[in-house]
Structure formats: structure tokens, C-alpha cells
Design goal:
mainly alpha, two-stranded antiparallel ribbon
């Protein structure tokens, strides 16, 4: 997951693999199709993305570690002048230690170390990835689902306790509310780690024999740093530990859930109870993350794994953007709960699970078809054969719209925003951002598939003319 949408696919084809093909370090890329404004645009994004994470916090902050609390503001378009003034006042009062502390850096580093340790220590299924252009297959160790549950157990029962005399006194729960009180400096710590990690990934990509992603091997250093040069960076001491697959699923996604739980804990500490909206957002987003980890195998055919290099874009998205922007709704609810009625929360729950039903049903149908288009489960589906030997679905969910799974995903995202009520437009940032992201991704995929399938893609679009909403869009 990351700045790009979770588990996206270029199409729902079955047949020859659809991965982008890596180059060796000594290869020459003949054609460059820049994204995100090329070297200038990606260079600006390197600085803008962390800045925007800070902006989201400053526009709607919470209590400070020193207990002095927030100004009570959360900026809304309808009252920007008044609330914007409070945001400026809050910003002027921030100290360096509000932005960065050694404690938060140690916590962030320890979190990464825990996830790496669980990756190696917990059992997992060995699975072969898609076939690369050089004919090889990478092997992956899948244990994300187990890691998810073990992490939650550790958060609830894994903190060592010691008596006043220093004797070990058993285990207890971590104070997850600490994450709310140290949200800003924790975000900074993750940014620092991400920048250092991205530099390492860029330098590592120049090692002899590294497989390079076409989109990140342009010769423009800033652009390649952002997009990622190496396709699947790994440590030499492990044949299954893939850095990109690990970061896509483990630290950021599970961290997102833990941060949300921390928001609920802090709301309980401050208010004496946990609201229905807070319970709903933890349920919705926790279930979303669980679903991603339970279906870990599905990541192997996504563009993040098969096409995109691993650089600053994915690293920042996985380790900073997801945990520190997707938790905006839960963070808002700690001190600004809208006290929605039971009926309103029930309606939002229906909307969320409608989106999930569309999202999961469409993706499951695609995965079954990709795995074995001749299975009994797929015999009712119609498809179009292409000159490449692939088969494109033109019935079922994928006959209704080419990106019907995106539609379900967005509906879920909108329901997450709706639990915050209508007190501020800021908490609807995710729905707006995600719509822009999905539209960009859909047109990017359309361009990719047009180059891949040629005239067959135009024929396919006549069978499935709608992109997101049947008979409308």
C-alpha cells in the first residue's frame, strides 16, 4: 500500500504474466514516460509529502505530550478564517521537541525491528512470485496474517513490568494512548527512518546484477530515487525476505491499526468511554487491514510488486503516509466526536460493508479467473482472447466496469470519513485524495494496457465501456 492504492492491478487478465520487466544495471532504457511531473515534480514531492503530513496535523492537532492540550481547533472550509487563525497560533507555539524526540525515534526503530523479527521468527508459507523476464521466480515467505495477530497480542500483553526493586513482575499492556500524545514527533521519526531507508535503497540499486524497474531506470537521479530503481531489493542473507513486499504489508498497515487503537485508548482516558464512531472507525479500518493481510498472496500480481521499483514513493507511502494520514479520522474523534445517533452509525456501517462486498467480490472473481480460467467457478464468465494469449473478462463484476473494485474501495473510504460527522471538511481529505489517486491510477493502467494489448484493448473497451460506475462513469 502506500501513495498508490492497495492491491491494484493493470487488468483482470489470465494468461502470460503482466509484470513490467526489469533491466540489468548495464541496460539502456529506450523510452522514458515520466510520471508525477518528471524530475522536477518528483523532486518537489520528496519535500511536499512530509510537509503535508505536518499540515494535516497542525490543522487539527490534539493534546501535547506536556499536557497543555490543543487550541481546540480543527480547520473547516466553512470557518477557515477563525480556525485558520488558531492553527497559526498553535504553529507558533510549537517547540523543536514537539517535532522530534529521541524517545519517538527509538519507538519507531523498535517497531520496525519487531516487524522484521516476526517476519523471520514466525512460520510462513513459501510462495513463488510471478515469472520475470529473465525466466526466474522470486520466493516469498507469507506470514502477514499471523504477524497481525501476534502484534496485537504483544501490544496488549507484551510489555515487561518491573517492581520498584527492579525485579521482573510479569507482562502488561503498552500505553497505546502515548501514540496520540506523541503523534507529531512519532511521525517525524518515521520520516527520518524512511529517508535513510530510501537512500539505502537507491545506493543498493547500483549493486552488480540488481534487477531494475523500467520506470525507475531513467538516468535522472532525483526521479529514479523517488520512483525506485531496483524492482525487488532483498538482503543477500535471506532468499525470501523481500523489502518491498514486507514494507507494503507489515510496518505501515499493522502500524495503522495500532495507531487507531491508540486513539481509542486515549479517547477512553480523556472521556471515560469510547464512542460509537471510534468503535466504527477501528472496526472498518481494522477489518480492511486484516483483509489485506489475510489475502497476502494477492499482492504478487499487483503493479507495486510486478512493475514499480522500490524507492522513496513506495517507502514513504508504506511507512509514513498510510499510518499518519489514514489515521486522521480516528485522531479527530479523540477530542471532536460528533456523537452520531445509533441509526446514523448503522447506515454508515451498511455503506462500508457494501463497499467491501463490491471490492472483495470483484477481486476474488478476478483472482479465481487468473488462477484457473477453466475452473468450474469461472465457467459462467465470458472473456475476450487477445493476440498476446491473455483472456480479458467481459462479464461478471468485470463486465460492469473496468475498475469496479476501485469503486468499492472508494465507497469504503467515504464511510470512514462519514463517521466523523460534518463538523469539518478536513476529515474528508481521505475520500478526496483517494478519488484523485484512483482516477490517476485508472488512467495510468489504461495507458499501460493500451501499450500492452494494442488494438485488442480498444475492442475490450467496447465490451466494457464504463470505468467506475456501470451505465454512468
Amino acid at each position: 500500500m502506500g501513495l498508490t492504492q492497495r492491491f491494484k492491478d493493470d487488468n483482470q487478465s489470465a494468461g502470460p504474466n503482466s509484470s513490467s520487466h526489469p533491466n540489468k544495471n548495464n541496460s539502456t532504457v529506450k523510452k522514458v514516460n515520466f510520471e508525477f511531473g518528471g524530475p522536477i515534480g518528483t523532486g518537489a514531492l520528496v519535500f511536499f509529502l512530509p510537509f503535508f503530513v505536518y499540515v494535516l496535523f497542525i490543522l487539527c492537532p490534539g493534546s501535547s505530550p506536556d499536557g497543555r492540550g490543543s487550541t481546540g481547533h480543527c480547520v473547516s472550509i466553512s470557518d477557515f478564517s477563525a480556525q485558520g487563525g488558531l492553527a497559526s497560533q498553535y504553529l507558533s507555539e510549537l517547540k523543536f521537541t514537539d517535532f522530534f524526540t529521541l524517545e519517538s525515534f527509538v519507538v519507531a526503530l523498535s517497531w520496525m525491528a519487531l516487524q522484521v523479527a516476526l517476519q523471520f521468527l514466525l512460520p510462513g508459507e513459501r510462495v513463488q512470485g510471478v515469472k520475470l523476464r529473465d525466466g526466474t521466480h522470486l520466493t516469498y515467505k507469507f506470514n502477514a496474517h499471523l504477524t497481525f495477530w501476534i502484534t496485537l497480542v504483544i501490544m496488549g500483553h507484551g510489555k515487561p513490568l518491573f517492581a520498584e526493586d527492579g525485579r521482573f513482575a510479569g507482562f502488561g499492556s503498552f500505553d497505546l494512548g502515548w501514540c496520540y500524545r506523541h503523534y507529531l514527533d512519532l511521525a517525524t521519526a518515521c520520516m527520518v527512518l524512511t529517508i535513510l531507508f530510501s537512500v539505502y535503497l537507491y545506493l543498493k540499486s547500483f549493486a552488480p546484477g540488481a534487477m531494475l524497474a523500467e520506470g525507475g531506470d531513467t538516468g535522472h537521479s532525483v526521479y529514479d530515487f523517488f520512483m525506485g530503481r531496483e524492482l525487488n531489493p532483498r538482503f543477500k542473507f535471506s532468499s525470501t525476505f523481500d523489502l518491498k513486499e514486507f514494507c507494503e504489508l507489515k510496518p505501515g498497515l499493522i502500524g495503522w491499526v495500532v495507531l487507531n487503537l491508540g486513539m481509542a485508548c486515549e479517547q477512553y482516558r480523556l472521556q471515560g468511554s469510547v464512542s460509537m464512531s471510534m468503535l466504527a472507525i477501528n472496526l472498518f479500518q481494522g477489518f480492511y487491514v486484516w483483509d489485506a493481510l489475510y489475502h497476502e498472496r494477492a499482492i504478487l500480481t499487483t503493479m507495486d510488486i510486478t512493475t514499480d521499483g522500490f524507492g522513496y514513493m513506495l517507502a514513504f507511502g508504506d511507512l509514513c503516509w498510510v499510518p499518519f494520514t489514514y489515521t486522521l479520522q480516528a485522531r479527530y474523534l479523540v477530542e471532536h466526536d460528533p456523537n452520531l445517533s445509533f441509526g446514523a452509525v448503522c447506515c454508515i456501517c451498511v455503506l462500508n460493508f457494501l463497499g467491501y462486498f463490491i471490492f472483495r467480490s470483484a477481486n476474488s472473481e478476478k483472482d479465481r479467473f487468473r488462477s484457473n480460467p477453466n475452473s468450474p467457478d469461472c465457467e459462467h464468465l465470458k472473456y475476450m482472447s487477445t493476440a498476446r494469449g491473455s483472456k480479458l473478462l467481459i462479464s461478471g463484476w468485470w463486465g460492469t466496469a473496468r475498475k469496479i473494485n476501485y469503486t468499492g474501495d472508494w465507497i469504503m473510504g467515504f464511510s470512514w470519513c462519514a463517521v466523523t460527522g460534518w463538523g469539518t471538511t478536513l476529515t474528508y481529505f481521505y475520500a478526496i485524495y483517494f478519488a484523485v489517486l484512483l482516477i490517476h491510477r485508472a488512467f495510468r493502467d489504461d495507458h499501460f494496457c493500451r501499450e500492452k494489448y494494442g488494438a485488442d484493448w480498444d475492442k475490450y473497451k467496447k465490451h466494457v465501456p464504463y470505468m467506475f460506475v456501470p451505465f454512468f462513469l
